[in-house]
Amino acid sequence: MSRRGWILFASLALIWGLPYMLIRVAVAELAPALLVFGRTALGACLLLPLVVVRRGHLRRLVPRWRPILLFTAAEVAVPWLLLSHAEQRLSSSAAGLLVACVPLAGALVSRLSGGAEASLGARGVAGLCLGLAGVAALVGLDFRAGDAGAVAAMLVVVIGYAVGPLVVSRHLADLPSLEVVAVSLAAAALLYAPAAVLAAPAAWPSGRVLAAVAALGVACTAAAFVIFFELIAEVGPIRATLVAYLNPAVAVAAGVLVLDEPFTAGTAAGFVLILSGSYLAAVRPRVAAGVTPPEAG
Predict the structure, then answer these.
(1) CB-side exposure of 143: number of CA atoms within 13 Å?
(2) 177: closest CA among 7, 296, 19, 275?
C-alpha cells in the first residue's frame, strides 16, 4: 500500500470509529430523530453539490428509486435512529462492538437470501460461532435486564447494515456509489425533517452537543464517504473494507479515554471474539465492493 493509501486508511479508521462516542454525547440533549436529521442534512448539503459539480447530474438514479429507498432505509434511516435510541442506555464502546457483528449478519443474510456468495464454509461457520460467543460474553457480563430494548435495537441496526450492501451489490452496483450515498442522505433528511421540528428543544443545546452533531455530519458522514471512495480508488475495494476491523478498537478507546466508560471483562472478551469471528465470517471477498462499510455508525 502506498503512503497515500496508508494515510487514507488510518484517517478513515479513526473517523468511522468516532461516531459512537459522538452519538452518546449528542443524545444526552437531543432526541434521536433530531440528531439523525442534523447528521443527514449536513452530509447531504455537503455531498450533493460535490456529486453534481464533479460527476454531472443525478438523473440516472431516478429509474432505480425503489432500491435506492430500500438502501436508504437499511443503511441510514432505520439504523441511525435505532443506534441513537440504543445509546441512550448503552455505552458507546458497547455499541461499537455490537456493530462489529455486521460481517456475521452479512454472512447469514447472504446465505438465507441465496445469492452467489451464499456458501459459508467451515471458516464462516466457525466465525459465526466465535462472534455469537463474543456477543454472549458482552451481553451476559455488561448488560442489565433493562437494556434488553436497546440490545434489540442494536440487533436491527446490525441487520440493516448487513442488508444495505447486498441491496447495492444486487441492484445498484453499476451506479456511482457517492451519488447513491448523497441521494440517500438527502432522502433520510427529508424523511426526518417533520420529526426534527417536533423534537426541537426549547433552548439551544450546549456547545459540546452542537460540536458532536457537526462532527457527525461533516467528518463522520460527508468527509468519510469521500475518503472511503478515494481509498477504494487507491487500494481497491477489498483492502478498503478492512478498515471495518479497526473501527471497533477506535470506538472502545474513545469511549474509555474520552467518556470514562469502563473497560470491563465483557468488553475485552467481546472485542476478541467478535472481531475474530467477523474476520473469519468475512474472509471471502465481500459482496458490495464499492459500498460504505456498515461500521460507519
Answers:
(1) 26
(2) 296
pLDDT at 288 over 50: no
Query: In whole angstroms, what is the distance from residue 240 CA to residue 191 CA?
Result: 30
pLDDT at 241: 66
Cα separation of the two ends of the chain? 26
Distance CA 98, CA 272 (A): 12
* Amino acid, res. 238: I
- φ and ψ at 91, to 5 degrees? -70, 155
Choice between 169 and 281, residue whose per-residue pLDDT is larger = 169
| Those residues with Cβ within 8 angstroms of residue 278's Cβ, 6 or more apart along the chain or in another chain | 100, 101, 102, 103, 104, 127, 131, 244, 245
Contact criterion met (CB below 8 Å) for 13 and 239: no
pLDDT higher than threshold 80 for residue 173: yes
Instruction: Cell numbers for 61, please give them.
Output: 438514479
Mean per-residue pLDDT, 105-127:
69
Rg (CA), the chain: 18
Instruction: Measure Cα distances from 24 to 124, 164, 169, 186 in Å.
Output: 32, 24, 31, 23
